[in-house]
Amino acid sequence: MSVFIDREFLYKISPKLDRFKKKDDDLFNFRCPLCGDSQKNKTKARGFIFRKGNDYFYKCHNCHACISFYNFLDKVDSALLKEYQLERYKNGDNNKTNHKVPTFEEFKSKPVFKKALSIPSIESLPEEHYAKAYVRSRKIPDKFHKMLYFAEDFKKFVESCEVQKDGLQEQEPRLVIPFYDENMNLVSFQGRALGDSKIRYITIKIDKDNYKVFGLDRVDKERMIYVTEGPIDSMFLDNAVATADANLTSITKLFDKSNVTLIFDNEPRNKDIVKIMEKAIDEHYNIVIWPDMIPYKDINEMVLHDFDSEEIQDIIESNTFVNLRAKMEFINWKKI
Questions:
Q1: Where in the chain is the domain with CATH 3.90.580?
Q2: What is residue 16's predicted lDDT score, i.e. its pLDDT?
Q3: Would you say residue 204 has pLDDT above 70?
Q4: Residue 97 confidence (pLDDT)
Q5: How does pLDDT run across 88-102, given as a tens digit for each residue?
Q6: Which fold has domain 212-336?
């Protein structure tokens, strides 16, 4: 019975909740009234009321508040709380503390909201479609085809996401690679050109307050996490994420340094890459130094030359170094 009372009082208080929307059965979204949500972007709505068992709870993805619906009412409308208490009491529930509030980790383990993309997945396209042919030509594993999308007009798709981005070409087709957070919220996406374009990759951030990391929705934090530059490279590895740029050390904003292995592109003559790698070694990161037997630029290029994922994983693990050994291997690897 308590869930029905919670829902009734949620609707009573909803006029006070900015941008209140019902997302799904027993899942409601609005701007957080506790922290005010984003002060820069008034469209941000990162507060959620969700059901666990026979009760409602509140969670904010900005201030990380995670409280019972009773305590939420207490903070937002103390007058309505008295009416709520009376209603619960009449229904035989007068103990406000007997419901365990889910921990932050428990909440994160359950996807709560996934922004649906308004474009077709690669999996849904006909076999002869040029976007699917491109994905197959890169040998991207089939399990990722449902996670990749095709935008016939990338600029129009970006605009449909209510994001402003200058310099986009009209009616340009691109492969779309979505970036989700741990709760399957779409926070960024990358568009890979499928035709002639001066810019091969364009990365769009939907949530500017979130981190631009591909693979957070799939990674196991209890195991070693492999960090690549490109999202496609990460698809061939076990438990990998991608930063979508060469700044791999930025991953430690999310994970402990000791639990990540940085895999830079194999470009020993690239001054920028060499400089960043040297700094990472000085800062005691686990880092892959590619052996001379590997002439290829990145993991996807290795796959295209008939290396399978298991072989690549073995090479990576055999050539991961830290501290003095990493510095010695790095000196032999760089060509500038």
A1: 2-108
A2: 93
A3: yes
A4: 44
A5: 877 766 545 445 555
A6: Dna Topoisomerase Vi A Subunit; Chain: A, domain 2 (3.40.1360)
When mean pLDDT is compared across 3-17, 266-280, 318-332, the lowest value belongs to 3-17
* From-to residues of CATH 3.40.1360.10 in the chain: 212-336
pLDDT at 112: 42
> pTM for the full model?
0.67
Reduce the secondary structure of the chain to three states and give it as a string. CHHHHHHHHHHHHHHHCCCCEEEECCEEEECCCCCCCCCCCCCCCCEEEEEECCEEEEEECCCCCEEEHHHHHHHHCHHHHHHHHHHHHHCCCCCCCCCCCCCHHHHHCCCCCCCCCCCCECCCCCCCCHHHHHHHHCCCCHHHHHHCEEECCHHHHHHHCCCCCCCCCCCCCEEEEEEECCCCCEEEEEEEECCCCCCCEEEEECCCCCCCCECCCCCCCCCCEEEECCHHHHCCCCCEEECCCCCHHHHHHCCCHHHEEEECCCCCCCHHHHHHHHHHHHCCCEEECCCCCCCCCCHHHHHHCCCCHHHHHHHHHHCEECHHHHHHHHHHHCCC
Top CATH class, 2-108? alpha beta
Where do you find CATH 3.90.980.10 in the chain?
Answer: 114-210
- Per-residue pLDDT of 228-243, as tens digits, reads 999 999 999 999 999 9
What architecture does CATH give domain 114-210?
Alpha-Beta Complex (3.90)
Question: Whole-number mean pLDDT of the chain?
Answer: 88
**CA 279 to mean position of chain CA atoms:** 26
Tell me, what's the pLDDT at 139?
Answer: 97
